[in-house]
Each structure stands twice: as structure tokens, then as C-alpha cells.
């Protein structure tokens, strides 16, 4: 079964406590937290104070996705805020290996994210050092976009790279995941499904999470 990581970017922020309670009561595995700086991506989301409060509501994994420049400036702060997994973008890191080692030295799992235009073979010299690859299946910055179909080929290629090296690196997919395409994404080799609007805009979010968790 895939790991299901609902993205709180799509949650109702006027009732964030209720949304966190719903996720805790659901079959969701992780809380996916998107941090945007308005520089690396054309949007600003939420930051450390919000993550600190979300952390107090849950024992589930807090999967923090940094869509920001100079992520090394804030890694320690995100650890203190409660991040279990910290993912940085390959496109934002001049010294990616150093960034990954910093994250791991702070006791977090390290993820690296790729934008839709970035080929997976750009990871060949870092793949063995990271815990997860996050493939963006939409252009980062805004929720509610449609899944980019070419991502399926990227998942398959990355799956081969990971398996050929005998690694346990997870593949996470973020953007445009629905109940209609989730099965094909998992079959292609994905381990983690990030779903925002599909979960939080549904009539029954818990049932939607359950459906994603048991997708075939």
C-alpha cells in the first residue's frame, strides 16, 4: 500500500485544528507541509510558526517540502519546529550534497525534489545519500493543477535507478493526484502519494484517504 501524505496547503486554515484532527483519525500516514517563499516559486504559503502548531497536534510524520531558496539557512529551525523529513529542491541548491548532509546531521530524513523539467538522471551522484525523491507532477507553487502525464515515465526511470542500486529510497509524487490516476502512479513505482485538493475538497476526506491508501 502506498504512503498517503495529504497536503495541508489545501486545508481550511480557519479550522486548521479540525483538519489536523481529521488527518489523525484517518488512514493518512504523513502530514505533507509545503513551504513557499515567493522567490523560488511564485507563491507564499506558511512557515515555521504554523508548522510548530501543527506538530503539537500529531504523532504522524511531518513531511516538510521546502520550495525556497537557500534552504540551508533554515534547516535547523525546521528541525526545531518538528520536521521529520525535510525535502529541498535540486534546482535551489548549489551545493546539494552539503545540504543533504546538513539535514541528516540534524536527525531528519533528507529528500530531494525535482521540478517537471529536471531529468531524474541528475540524481545519479546523490541518490545513494538520500531517503526520498519527490517528483513534482505539476509546476510548483499552486494547488489544484492537473497531473503532468510525462511524470509516469520519470517514475519508471527513477524506480529502475533505485532498484538497480539496491537502495531503499522512496519515490514521492506531488501534484494533481486523484482517485482516477493514483493507481497508475503506484503501478509506475511510486511509494508516497501527496494529495491536497483531492482530499480536502472532497465530500468525505477520510473516505478519500482510505481509497488512496488501498488503491489498486
Question: What are the salient characteristics of this protein?
Answer:
alpha/beta; 216 residues; 32% helix; TIM Barrel
- What's the CATH H-level homologous superfamily? Aldolase class I
| Mean pLDDT rating | 96
Instruction: Give me the CATH architecture, please.
Output: Alpha-Beta Barrel
Number of strands: 8
**Which shape, going by the Cα principal axes?**
globular
Low-confidence stretches: none
How far apart lie the N and C ends?
8 Å
Helicity, as a percent range: 25-40%
In the residues, how many domains can be counted? Answer: 1
- Name the CATH class: Alpha Beta
SSE order? EHEHEHEHEEHEHEHH
**Contiguous helical run count:** 8
- Spatial ordering of strands, largest sheet: 1-8-7-6-5-4-3-2
Strand content: 15-25%
Fill in the CATH topology.
TIM Barrel
Structural class based on helices, strands and sheet pairing: alpha/beta
Radius of gyration: 16 Å
Major sheet details: 8 strands, parallel
In short:
The chain is an alpha/beta fold. It has a single domain (3-213), classed as Aldolase class I (TIM Barrel, Alpha-Beta Barrel), CATH 3.20.20.70. 32% of the residues lie in helices and 20% in strands.
Kindly describe this structure.
- 32% of the residues lie in helices and 20% in strands.
- The model has no long low-confidence stretch (mean pLDDT 96).
- The protein has a single domain, classed as Alpha-Beta Barrel (TIM Barrel), CATH 3.20.20.
- It has an eight-stranded parallel β-sheet with strand order 1-8-7-6-5-4-3-2.
- With 216 residues, the chain is an alpha/beta fold.
- The chain has eight helices and eight strands.
- The chain has helices spanning 16-25, 48-55, 75-81, 96-105, 151-164, 182-188, 197-200, 205-213; strands at 3-6, 30-36, 61-67, 85-89, 109-114, 132-136, 170-174, 192-195.
Amino acid at each position: 500500500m502506498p504512503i498517503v501524505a495529504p497536503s495541508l496547503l489545501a486545508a481550511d486554515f480557519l479550522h486548521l485544528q479540525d483538519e489536523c484532527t481529521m488527518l489523525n483519525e484517518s488512514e493518512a500516514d504523513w502530514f505533507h507541509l509545503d513551504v513557499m517563499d515567493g522567490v523560488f516559486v511564485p507563491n507564499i504559503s506558511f512557515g515555521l510558526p504554523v508548522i510548530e502548531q501543527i506538530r503539537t497536534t500529531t504523532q504522524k510524520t511531518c513531511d516538510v517540502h521546502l520550495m525556497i531558496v537557500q534552504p540551508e539557512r533554515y534547516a535547523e529551525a525546521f528541525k526545531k519546529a518538528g520536521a521529520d523529513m525535510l525535502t529541498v529542491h535540486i534546482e535551489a541548491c548549489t551545493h546539494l550534497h552539503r545540504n543533504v548532509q546538513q539535514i541528516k546531521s540534524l536527525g531528519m530524513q533528507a529528500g530531494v525534489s525535482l521540478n517537471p523539467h529536471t531529468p531524474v538522471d541528475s540524481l545519479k551522484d546523490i541518490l545513494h545519500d538520500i531517503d526520498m525523491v519527490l517528483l513534482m507532477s505539476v509546476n510548483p507553487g499552486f494547488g489544484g493543477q492537473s497531473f503532468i502525464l510525462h511524470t509516469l515515465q520519470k517514475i519508471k526511470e527513477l524506480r529502475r535507478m533505485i532498484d538497480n542500486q539496491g537502495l531503499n529510497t522512496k519515490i514521492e509524487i506531488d501534484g494533481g493526484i486523484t482517485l482516477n490516476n493514483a493507481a497508475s502512479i503506484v503501478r509506475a513505482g511510486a511509494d508516497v502519494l501527496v494529495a491536497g485538493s483531492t482530499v480536502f475538497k472532497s465530500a468525505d476526506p477520510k473516505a478519500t484517504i482510505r481509497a488512496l491508501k488501498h488503491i489498486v
